[in-house]
Amino acid sequence: MSSICKTDISNVAKDICKVFINSARKIFGVTKNVQVSKNKPWFNRDCRNARKKFHSAKRLQNRYPTIENKNNLKTTSKTYKRTMDKCKNNYTNKLARKLSELRSTNSKEYWKILNSTNKNKKCAVDINEMFQFMKDLNAGDYDDEFVGNSDLSYTLIIDETDTPDGSLNSVITEEEIKTAVRKLKNVALFQMNGYLE
Predict the structure, then answer these.
(1) CB 46 within 8 A of CB 88
(2) pLDDT (tens digit, 9 = 90+) per residue, 66-109?
(3) CB under 8 Å to 83, separation ≥6 — which residues?
(4) Model-level pTM greater than 0.70?
(5) Would you put residue 153 in left (φ > 0), alpha (ψ -120 to 50) or beta?
């Protein structure tokens, strides 16, 4: 009788496991575990119920492929899509209304909501690539007229032909500032501090 080692036993066990796994895959099929994204605050109970109905109709169609089950799958699929679109639009509209209210009443909460959406956004450009790009950009060849001209002072050219009355480039008067301030929402604050008469 030959000696049996541990590797022989483990190989036989692996082969038996493969037989069971392959036969189970053929009989039951393979399902993928899909992680539900937590970045969808609009996905509520209605969406979950519609998704549940859609998946059960899909399983029924896969198990018993009939015309009736196919039509049922189409209608539940459309209902699921419509429900998701409706919930997404409702969430977006509520968020827009909330932001417009918070903008004037509670700026801290307003910016907290705005900054919470941009948490995971990172720069897609590698820092070394950016450095090399800037280095190449600054080392580029320039025209002779720019290299010799060391005077980089600029003057504002006022062209009266920009607008018919030349008001675009005219000096801003104190009366124009007072008129603009009076149109603001918190004019009483300016009047109390003596800025407006």
Answers:
(1) no
(2) 999 999 999 999 999 999 999 999 999 998 888 888 888 888 88
(3) 46, 47, 50
(4) no
(5) beta
SS (H, E, C) 61-74: HHHCCCHHHHHHHH
Whether the CB-CB separation of 16 and 57 falls below 8 Å is answered with no
Q: Are 76 and 57 in contact (CB under 8 A)?
A: yes
Residue type, 22: N
State which amino acid sits at residue 52.
K
User: Which tokens is 86 given?
Assistant: 């409706």
Report the range of poorest mean pLDDT among 56-60, 163-167, 175-179. 163-167
Both tokens of residue 115? 């900054």
Hey, what long-range contacts does 19-24 have (CB within 8 A, 24 or more apart)? none
- For residues 181 and 196, the answer to whether their CB atoms sit within 8 Å is yes
Rounded to 5 degrees, what angle do the CA atoms 85, 89, 93 make?
175
Quote the CA–CA distance of 76 and 54 in Å, as a whole number. Answer: 5
**CB of 103 closer than 8 Å to CB of 110:** yes
- CA–CA gap between residue 119 and residue 3 (Å, rounded): 62
User: Residue 53 in contact with residue 76, Cβ under 8 Å?
Assistant: yes
* Residue range 187-196, pLDDT digits in tens: 555 555 555 5
